């Protein structure tokens, strides 16, 4: 019963998955076509505008409170972490059309600078998303350097404030023992474990 219900809550319709993959494919196709079209043609910017429109359609599916992805995350109790990752994707992906506009679009910068900008954006997206994901899911005994790297990435997108608020709540409710477990853990799974352990403590300890 309960297990079946949990599996049902995690299910995302196949049609939505196909729709999102299709939008993502069309968005990248618009960017590729816009890069290949000669500068003198208006169609170059037409494809750029179309790609931006598709990007906002994707953003609505990822970030809108009424979207299936967000509602599913809320039902599964993972909405805070999901919104954090979605926010990172929306912010970091916005850099791609900006770089295109000042390089392939308007030819404001030369090809060497363009390649450098794209390399920077790629590194920011890949490493930033990885660091944020590790900050959310890092288990106990995570190496200190990895905790520091992931926490810096997470702090940029607002997770540090939430962790600080949670630590104060745990301290006032359950005492320093649970607070120490929480602060050394680093991830949401550790936060949940600390809360569960606190609920099992005798009343005089809490």
Automatic annotation (TrEMBL):
<dbReference type="InterPro" id="IPR001425">
    <property type="entry name" value="Arc/bac/fun_rhodopsins"/>
</dbReference>
<keyword id="KW-0472">Membrane</keyword>
<keyword id="KW-1133">Transmembrane helix</keyword>
<feature type="transmembrane region" description="Helical">
    <location>
        <begin position="117"/>
        <end position="136"/>
    </location>
</feature>
<comment type="similarity">
    <text>Belongs to the archaeal/bacterial/fungal opsin family.</text>
</comment>
<protein>
    <submittedName>
        <fullName>Uncharacterized protein</fullName>
    </submittedName>
</protein>
<feature type="transmembrane region" description="Helical">
    <location>
        <begin position="84"/>
        <end position="102"/>
    </location>
</feature>
<feature type="transmembrane region" description="Helical">
    <location>
        <begin position="45"/>
        <end position="63"/>
    </location>
</feature>
<dbReference type="Pfam" id="PF01036">
    <property type="entry name" value="Bac_rhodopsin"/>
</dbReference>
<dbReference type="GO" id="GO:0016020">
    <property type="term" value="C:membrane"/>
</dbReference>
<feature type="transmembrane region" description="Helical">
    <location>
        <begin position="18"/>
        <end position="39"/>
    </location>
</feature>
<keyword id="KW-0812">Transmembrane</keyword>
<feature type="region of interest" description="Disordered">
    <location>
        <begin position="183"/>
        <end position="206"/>
    </location>
</feature>
């Amino acid at each position: 019963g309960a297990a079946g219900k949990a599996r049902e809550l995690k299910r995302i319709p196949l049609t939505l998955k196909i729709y999102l993959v299709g939008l993502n494919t069309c968005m990248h196709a618009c960017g590729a076509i816009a890069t290949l079209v000669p500068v003198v043609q208006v169609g170059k910017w037409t494809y750029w505008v179309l790609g931006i429109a598709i990007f906002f359609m994707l953003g609505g599916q990822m970030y809108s409170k009424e979207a299936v992805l967000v509602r599913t995350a809320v039902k599964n109790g993972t909405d805070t972490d999901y919104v954090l990752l979605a926010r990172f994707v929306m912010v970091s992906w916005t850099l791609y059309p900006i770089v295109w506009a000042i390089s392939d679009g308007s030819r404001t910068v030369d090809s060497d600078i363009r390649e450098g900008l794209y390399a920077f954006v790629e590194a920011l997206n890949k490493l930033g998303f990885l660091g944020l994901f590790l900050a959310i899911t890092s288990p106990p005994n995570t190496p200190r350097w990895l905790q520091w790297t992931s926490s810096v990435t997470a702090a940029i997108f607002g997770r540090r404030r939430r962790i600080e608020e949670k630590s104060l709540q745990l301290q006032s409710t359950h005492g320093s023992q649970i607070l120490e477990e929480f602060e050394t853990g680093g991830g949401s799974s550790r936060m949940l474990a600390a809360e569960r352990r606190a609920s099992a403590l005798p009343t005089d300890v809490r």
